[in-house]
Amino acid sequence: MTNSPILTVDNLKTYFFTDEGAVRAVDGASFEVHAGKTVGIVGESGCGKSVTALSILRIVQRPGRIVEGAIRLRRADASGKRGEVDLASLDPEGAEIRAIRGGEIALVFQEPMTSFSPHYTIGNQIVETIQLHQAVGKAEARSRTIELLRMVGIPRPERRIDEYPFELSGGLRQRVMIAMALSCNPKILIADEPTTALDVTTQAQILDLLRDIQARTQMSVIIITHDMGVIAEMADDVIVMYLGRVVESGPVDEIFHAPKHPYTQALLRSIPSIFAEPRSKLPTIAGSIPHPHNRPSGCPFHPRCAEAMPGLCERHAPQLLPLSPSQKASCFLYHEPEEVAPA
Amino acid sequence: MSERSKADAPLLEVKKLRRFFPIRKGLLRRVVGQVRAVDDVSFHIKRGETLSLVGESGCGKTTTARCILRALKPTAGQVLFQTAAGDVVDTAALPKRALQPFRHQMQMIFQDPFSSLNPRMTVFDIIAEPLLASGVKSREQRRRRVEELLELARLRPEFMGRYPHAFSGGQRQRIGIARALALNPSLIVADEPVSALDVSVQAQILNLMLDLQDELGLTYLFVAHDLSVVKHISDRVAVMYVGKIVEIAETKHLFNAPQHPYTEALLSAVPKPDPRLRAERIALKGEVADAAQPPTGCYFHPRCAYAIDRCRTEAPQLEETQPGHFVSCHRAKEIELTGVEAPGIGKPS
After folding, report:
1. What are A100-114's pLDDT values in tens digits?
2. Best residue of B232, B242, B264 to probe chain A, by most A CBs closer than 10 Å
């Protein structure tokens, strides 16, 4: 494994231009994805984690668009030469991004029921994906599909391939979704809340499956979730987002055992734990997540932050800066505000 | 807390509750089978106590809750409720109309605070509606009670003229709680009350529920799938699988020393919020059984790592293995199961 990342997101800004004004869904997110590693993006609703994923694949719906930043994917071009392509600068309907989408970067959604067409068998839908990206015949695509279904643990795949999505349970449907995502040997798999709609025992099966496949294929995984438990189980590196910004990033062990940003610290304290004393009170974070149109000035977390410094945090926006070779945080507890940083 | 010790008789006792849903097929809509959604469920809840019903989707936990509130008519069984007057009524047997005097003593908190509040009503109208329905005619009286209720739910009373859309998910859930408390209920049935909320807000609502229980002596039936949430709020926990209770015990006993293999697997499957605890999970094979065609014997046997021949043929009964700890497993006494250990004790390095 080399040290250069396979995907670099650099100061990504995706805004939604609504009648009431621009919603800064992603407001300057930066992170890296390394080959064979899992990056976990965690945050609460409205933090921009899903829009980040949609931005990488260039499937942000109007009125949203990428207004700034770069998404650099390291890939070999047609002649086999290694190079980089900036996904943010591609035409979202062009041939290049369409080859990458579903090919080199695949996506698994949260809701496996609505992600399939109800009119076609699951086999049909996977065969179509394979033939779209690879020059193979129908028979070969079909036998590859059966192989894939077997790999994701679908019992009797030769029969299941001809079933419709409604005939499968939630857990099986999510397995089929993963099989479809894997059909073109992606370098990067983005899993957006892949287990949120599932029961715990099914969730455990799907997480094990993802880990298993990653160990075999050496693909990179970006897992997006609100569940700190899933992050702790799956991620190598963690990105914590709040209102469109990355507030902290670092290796999973440091995020959980030495969190630096007050939001990360408060979030970890406030999760109900299976180790808790029965009937014990939880530490809480004051207030609630602001409406996207009422974005606080300065650091977006300052109205809820127990350590906010008046005169500083509401006026200046902190930058994501390194605290150690591996960990970064965007908080004035650790950095002086820059002279030029505007609110 | 004084309420807790007051009465020994349980506030609610459910006996052999059943709710089947017929499966109809064909032109004549003939009944061809039954979905045994709730099948022979018995438990009790003491005054001031919180009992949680946990299990995966389709296990019958919500159907049980709805039968207790008589949103559904049970197919069989008794729901014995101790009324405010002190006598015990079987709400499962009463005709709908005769239920009216008791309805206000049991209230519900819903899962989704976005769809459970009418968007065209102000907060005042939402919370005052049950008051109006129960005959509080004076608007001034209603206004004062709504003010009181908003304060109980830690909301600012001056918000009562606003509409639900002006509130965040957590605030809406507080409005739902205020509405549930309007008529001084003794039993609150909360069906997944925090599962639609953000993590940072979940904690606030759980704390509020614990506070209100102490202040008002409320009794909770808490329906949830999230075991970490359940651990925080419950005195006792009942685990359901395919319409039956497989284990019921005090929270600590159930989590630390589960006696049913399904409970063990559930606990093991919960992702632990600590990367140093990445351990081998007990992976359950297969999927939850179909409540229309349950397996023979113990419903859990096809997925159970401890199953023996007897489990395939003979259905186990819920039996008391230790004081207050009931398990429905033939092998409960011979197998040794693992619960969740508190971090710090035997933490893997």
Report:
1. 998 899 999 877 677
2. B232
